[in-house]
Design goal:
Rossmann fold; alpha/beta; 15 helices; 34% helix; disordered C terminus; 4-stranded parallel sheet; single chain; Serine Threonine Protein Phosphatase 5, Tetratricopeptide repeat
């Protein structure tokens, strides 16, 4: 078997989520003489999925060594590993919205490590960038690059700081939209925000609203659509699910700030893998995330929690295309969450001894699971 054949075999195991075998094949391919510049992405993905970030960064080092042959571009230098403590950094936020929410947590550390930070992004991201007072200036992506010393991508920040599983910045919330936490006081139902469709570039992340119709059995909860895109109209087809929720003020479409405020007014979020999941996690809201079988590296393997978001619970497909099992588990979780609210405040429920009575779902929702030490809880 040639080195390239060994690598392709590793890719097949990677697709099957057999990461141990994939890594063994990748290693054999390299030992047999495969050019290390071949298959960097696949090896990187495998190492990230098993949480060995440093091995993944070694693959990124290989990739960057190739990119450095390009050198300067329009007078701007892509970060090449050198110290930037006295530099002006141009931070490009041109990947997905969820990526921006996840990795802008590094903005304070970046600002403390350099002289000045200028962010460049699509207008839809400006409210998010404005939430980070440590960013000195924000520019639209339609203009040319300003004068700066070094450029880097927002999604590169974990690599820039050589993040490991032990050094992920876990403190939440790390977003501040200037909106005080609501005090609901005594009430007889909770509000659950729902998002069922991801962006069109990866339809595998989306589920039909019908998969969530088990939520109709939750008697003391109302449901609020947090959906963007044309799928937002799906809510009109299921008035029996959404007729108890007040519409959010204005349209959420394309408005991160309005979406964040709607999330803050909810008690619980149930969503697929999209920007809403990241936004809820960054705001320290309890959030249940439905993941398809081939979910990407950030969700790792087989975990029901996320090292990036302490208040998040993950519900994974067991088989490709089958949303029945994860949706059922998530709906049962919502039922338990709502049943234990019982008209009391959310804080009372989370601190009540009954949450530690041995019930599997209550163990999953016990106070230290939703609000560990990394979280800053108001009050």
């Amino acid at each position: 078997m040639t080195p390239l054949d060994l690598h392709r075999r590793g890719c097949w195991f990677l697709h099957q989520r057999n990461i141990a075998e994939a890594l063994r094949c990748f290693e054999e391919a390299l030992n047999a003489g495969l050019d290390p510049s071949v298959g960097i992405g696949e090896r990187w993905n495998a190492w990230m999925l098993v949480g060995d970030f440093e091995r993944a960064w070694q693959e990124t080092d290989r990739l960057e060594s190739v990119r450095r042959t390009v050198g300067h571009v329009d007078g701007q230098l892509h970060w090449d590993g050198r110290d930037f403590s006295d530099k002006t950094v141009l931070l490009n936020c041109d990947h997905g919205l969820g990526d921006a929410v996840q990795f802008l947590r590094y903005a304070p550390r970046l600002r403390s490590s350099c002289r000045r930070v200028i962010a460049k992004a699509r207008p839809v991201l400006w409210p998010l960038l404005d939430a980070f007072k440590c960013i000195d200036d924000v520019l639209p992506d339609s203009v040319g690059d300003p004068i700066c010393d070094v450029t880097m991508e927002c999604s590169e920040l974990p690599y820039v700081f050589r993040t490991t599983m032990d050094t992920i910045p876990r403190e939440v919330p790390y977003l501040d939209f200037g909106y005080p936490a609501s005090s609901r006081g005594y009430r007889r139902q909770i509000t659950v925000g729902l998002c069922w469709a991801a962006g069109p570039w990866n339809p595998l992340r989306s589920i039909p609203v019908s998969a969530l119709l088990g939520l109709r059995e939750v008697k003391n909860a109302s449901f609020l659509s947090l959906q963007w895109g044309q799928e937002a109209t799906d809510a009109k087809r299921y008035p029996e699910l959404f007729n108890r929720a007040a519409a959010p003020p204005g349209s959420l479409e394309g408005d991160i700030r309005a979406t964040a405020l709607a999330i803050l007014d909810c008690d619980l979020i149930l969503t697929v893998d999209t920007m809403v999941a990241h936004l809820a996690g960054a705001l320290a809201k309890p959030v249940l995330v439905l993941l398809h079988f081939d979910s990407d590296w950030r969700w790792m393997l087989d975990r029901t929690d996320s090292p990036w978001y302490p208040t998040m619970k993950l519900f994974r497909q067991i088989a490709r295309g089958d949303w029945v099992a994860p949706a059922h588990r998530a709906v049962e979780c919502v039922k338990t969450f709502a049943a234990n609210l019982g008209g009391a405040s959310l804080g009372d429920v989370l601190s009540h001894p009954s949450w530690n009575d041995g019930s599997p779902w209550k163990r999953a929702l016990r106070p230290d699971a939703w609000y560990p030490s990394e979280c800053k809880r108001a009050g």
